[in-house]
């Protein structure tokens, strides 16, 4: 049985391998089939899967740390792994006990990789009934994991009702068309382009959480948003940590002391402003890490508890804590991504070093939803005692 710390060490080893050619792979912008193969071969894909089917049997607390470590080597691959964990857990969030057992056995035994076509800012997919089948159709602007996924999570609204229905389908079918249109400045290897869903058929029996075509809601169903917001937070932190690691290594090997300040030093490692600058960034990242780890431990306890136990109050408290962690990781990460150039020096801006990729990666994904609203959620809780209402983003 592999321990939690051993899984983190496996993730650290994967990150080191990814970091070797991260700059070149970012430039090439090719579909990361080999990178996902690394995740599968290492066992990280089935970290949360049941041990009886060959999975790691680990908790979300470990999964969050693993996401962070992988992102330290490559932010795109950390994001892919984090989204995979969330979508693999989706059946636990809303499915029946029988559906949970079937999906977890399937993906764990075969080391299948998840993607999702569930962008709430687009119109919902339309679902129509055809006898004992549901038929999904529509278009989504973003589908992270698209071409590297084995399974895709769909979500839509049943025509003539307000009922949202999740379903898990094979990614490789002619009725799912992934478009090669992901061309953003950062997170370039996440395969987050658009997707067209054309009459994808799903048995009614596979409608997640539905029994006799009726859904019985639980507060637990709404944990998908806090859980994935903390996925974001962890790969933001991992990207920032990777930026600091890379900058420190560059300064040790290349940065020269400044000879015109009246306090000449023999090396950059003696230069007071460089030491002060790195000390400030490191302290801030340690502080963010402590907050993020606290959030990970608290939501992990809830995610692995009986689903019926979760109350709206506890759910809201977790959402606020994660909102606080996310804003800190985003703001501090962006500061690190900028400040490292002042500490490494002019030559570090050469394209061959790729130091800009950390800021680009974090800036790109941190726009997923406005961080100002996360600050507002925390403020409303602190000042007014208000908990955020569950939505697609809170």
UniProtKB/TrEMBL annotation:
Signal peptide: none
InterPro entries (alphabetical): Acyl-CoA_DH_C, Acyl-CoA_Oxase/DH_mid-dom_sf, AcylCo_DH-like_C, AcylCoA_DH/ox_N, AcylCoA_DH/ox_N_sf, AcylCoA_DH/oxidase_NM_dom_sf
Gene3D superfamilies: Acyl-CoA dehydrogenase/oxidase, N-terminal domain (1.10.540.10), Butyryl-CoA Dehydrogenase, subunit A, domain 2 (2.40.110.10), Butyryl-CoA Dehydrogenase, subunit A, domain 3 (1.20.140.10)
This protein's UniProt keywords: Flavoprotein, Oxidoreductase
Entry's Gene Ontology molecular function annotations: 3-methylbutanoyl-CoA dehydrogenase activity; flavin adenine dinucleotide binding
Pfam family, one: Acyl-CoA_dh_2
PANTHER family: ACYL-COA DEHYDROGENASE, ISOVALERYL-COA DEHYDROGENASE, MITOCHONDRIAL-RELATED
Protein name, per record: Acyl-CoA dehydrogenase
Source organism of the structure: Amycolatopsis sacchari
